[in-house]
Amino acid sequence: MPTFPIGPRPSPGWLGCPLSLALLLTPAALTAQETPADLVDPFVGTLADFGQLSPAAVAPFGMMQLGPDTSPANHAGYDHAATTLLGFSHTRGVGVGCGGAGGDLMISLRYAGSTGTARIDKADEQARAGTYRVRYDGGILAEMAATRGAGVLRFTLPRAGPVDLRIDPRHSYSKRLSASWASLASDDLRTDLVAGTVCDQGAYHLHSASRILVNGRPIHQTLTAGANDLATLRLTGKAGDTIEIRTGLSTVDGRGAASVRDTEVGSKSLAAVATETRAAWNRNLGRVVPSGSQEQRALFYTSLYRVMETPVAIDDPDGRHRDKTGAIETSPKRRTRYANWSLWDNYRTQMPLLALLQPERSADIAQSLVALYTGGKPQWSTPNEPFLTVRTEHAGIALLDMHRKGIAFDANAALAGMAADSDTLKRGTPDEQIEAAYDDWATAELARDLGRPDLAQTFTAKAQSYRPMWRSVFQTPGADGDVVKARGLYQGTLWQYRWAPIFDLPWMTQTVGRDRLLGELHHFFDAGLFNMTNEPDIQVPWMFAALGQPQPTADLVRTILTKPIAHPYTNSGKLPVPFVGRSFAVSPQGFADGMDDDAGGMTAWYVFAALGLYPLVPGEPWYVVTTPAFARSDIDLGKGRKLTIQRSGPENGRITQASLNGRTLPNFRVQHADLLRGGTLTVTTVAKTVRNVPQLQDTGAKTLKNGASRRR
User: Fold this and answer.
1) What's the rounded Cα separation, in Å, for the pair 73 and 170?
2) Mean pLDDT computed over 617-646
3) pLDDT of 201-211, one tens digit each?
4) Angle at the Cα of 677 from the Cα atoms of 676 and 683, rounded to 5 degrees
5) Which burial class, exposed, middle or buried, applies to 267 when counting CB atoms under 10 A from its CB (0-12, 13-18, 19+)?
6) Is the Cα dihedral 17, 19, 20, 23 positive or negative?
7) How big is the chain by its Cα radius of gyration, in Å?
8) Could you give the C-alpha distances from 516 to 95, 495, 496, 542, 710, in angstroms and in order?
9) Per-residue b or e along 638-661, where b marks 16 or more CB atoms closer than 10 Å to that residue's CB
């Protein structure tokens, strides 16, 4: 049995496993499950293409993601349905599309002479926040735990005999550009690695330093590097022997990786590393305490756990890191550099959620974003990334949002970079014009905040230049309005991108007319045009409340959170028969078909929705308020301030009022600054008997004729 506390909360698909059930029934495990970290189920979203997630061991905002690689695999190296184990690797991008990235330094161990595939004992597979374990290949036990930049992988042998340890530096989920051994000594095994970032749009450079121990002691041997740089070592053990590989990662060099390893794990036991990481997760997750059933809280904390995996802290213990050009820099004391961006996906939800729940960390995240603009900022990745960055579009919107929420960073440097970046933005297709306009709007607004009216005027005009195009293309979508990628759109339809200029909602409302716009919103849902599996239109359910109809927002959000709905769209087209299922669930499937979590973009949507808040316009410091999923949630805002969000009335009732500390909130909006003062946000509902709200896939919906009619 493992010597560190597993206390798993298995996914429903494997609750029947005897060993898992026995562990669940122990008093210690039952007590542990009441903490946020033990309610996290890392298996959620790890089946096939549902979520593209991994059960790998990871610490909050950690580089190290130490976990299993299977065949077949999804984009993060693992498929919950797989029964063949390839090994265990140390990095992965989670929920980020394309073929993923990472998979660095894959380690496997089998008995000498083993043939065929290494079979996973699925009944014994367990994962929780910060740890993973599995038995495979007839009883070998693999256990692992991670810190921010280091990990411990331990194998326990079930019987005596020679075993072969293999370490593959060329394994990768993207293009492996280079891999070389700087040292093959078992006491300090070092590699220098370069691989493609997500979608192979750039490259990241990584260094590792590992130490091999047998029964806790160094073995002073040299590994042999063979074909394709595969390093091997044969060891002879007896039943119960342990073989441990302790690895540190650095963006700088092998010395930095060794320093990370020795500082973060050193000689600590696997149990101690697991306990410390569990405590770190509890500190971060525990800033929000929702009421509700165990399953509700498990889904909430599992979602928040995914939100808090990115971006990642990349500093070595001495503060060194590499920037996007490959140059070595040193962070000032008490500051941290972050990397691993997927901003096109998560500037809408994940970044605003971190600004609310992690304001101290968000200051360093913001300054790390400012650094991207130095010398020009590519919209995807450079050839010299320090880690697995996907793309950095809309960094300026995230910076404006954090600035207006009181998060301190060098805003003047950000403004200069944002202004210079504008000329590099693509504006060829309709969606590119809207997205560039949003960036230009953010530049104008930040300039206005910083007392630069001249620059504000210039960029306001630039931002508004998309409007004639919107009128001609989006005001009345044509026959191709429901065709994915029509007119060069990226992963969406004209109807879905129609609502993208959320920063310009007052103009859109004035142009179309409020009543007509509301009618078109109803049609959008009634006709099955909404897509919850990708980001371009995930804000649309909240627009009803912003336009004065809070009830459709409340009903739509509750339906998305709790019920199976039709999902007709994929990134490449529309399905002939929609996938019907939950958008979010505590199961290995976890998400709708083809729905990537997108580095916390989708799970942050869930967290906001469960709390009854949504940042409708990133860059404007207010939230739409709707019916929360929980009767009560308590949020630690830091500096002794507490916020309670409570629901007075039924969850499925008619929403009648929202108030903060007894003061009614007009238009169901609350300002970020008002929330930060703490107190109680109350949403009042009453029982309702008539339901006349938008549907999420209604084949009986009538075709929109006059812009305001809808199915009644």
Assistant:
1) 17
2) 97
3) 999 999 999 99
4) 80
5) exposed
6) positive
7) 25
8) 37, 15, 17, 17, 11
9) eeeeebebbbebeeebbbebbbbe
The residues facing 159 across adjacent strands are none
The answer to whether 77 and 92 have CB atoms below 8 angstroms apart is yes
Across-strand partners of 222?
A: 185
CA–CA dist 552, 517 (Å, integer) = 14
Beta strands in 544-608 (DSSP E): 565-569, 574-581
23 pLDDT higher than 90: no
Closest alpha carbon to 631 in 576, 588, 681, 594: 681
Q: Pairing between strand 106-111 and 161-168?
A: antiparallel
- 161-168 and 231-237 strand pairing: antiparallel
Q: From the CB of residue 505, how many other CB atoms can be counted at a distance below 10 Å?
A: 18
Do the Cβ atoms of 56 and 92 come closer than 8 Å? yes
- Residue 3: pLDDT band by 50, 70, 90 thresholds? very low
Query: Which secondary structure element, helix H or strand E, spans residue 561, and what is its range?
Result: helix 550-562
Percent of the chain with pLDDT over 70: 92
**Helix (H) or strand (E) run with residue 141 in it:** strand 140-146
Distances in Å between the alpha carbon of 531 and those of 334, 473, 636? Answer: 42, 20, 33
**C-beta neighbour count of 675 within 10 angstroms:** 22
End-to-end CA distance of the chain: 61
CB-based contacts of 500, cutoff 8 Å, min separation 6: 431, 434, 435, 438, 536, 537
Looking up tokens 């309709």 gives 430
pLDDT tens track for 662-690: 999 999 999 999 999 999 999 999 998 76
Query: HEC profile for 643-680?
Result: EEEEEECCCCCEEEEEEECCEECHHHEEEHHHHHCCEE
Using CA atoms, how far residue 130 sits from 282, 565, 657, in Å, is: 11, 32, 41
Amino acid identity, position 458:
T
350-357 and 601-611 are packed helices; what angle lies between their axes, rounded to 10 degrees?
50
Contact 604, 613 (CB under 8 A): no
For the cut 70, the answer to whether the pLDDT of residue 13 exceeds it is: no
Q: How buried is 689 (Cβ within 10 angstroms: 0-12 exposed, 13-18 middle, 19+ buried)?
A: exposed
Mean pLDDT over all residues of the chain? Answer: 91
| Strand 65-71, strand 140-146: pairing | unpaired
Report the alpha-carbon distance of residue 127 to residue 65 in Å, rounded: 13
Predicted local distance difference test score (pLDDT) of residue 21:
30
Give the distance between the most distant pair of CA atoms in the chain. Answer: 80
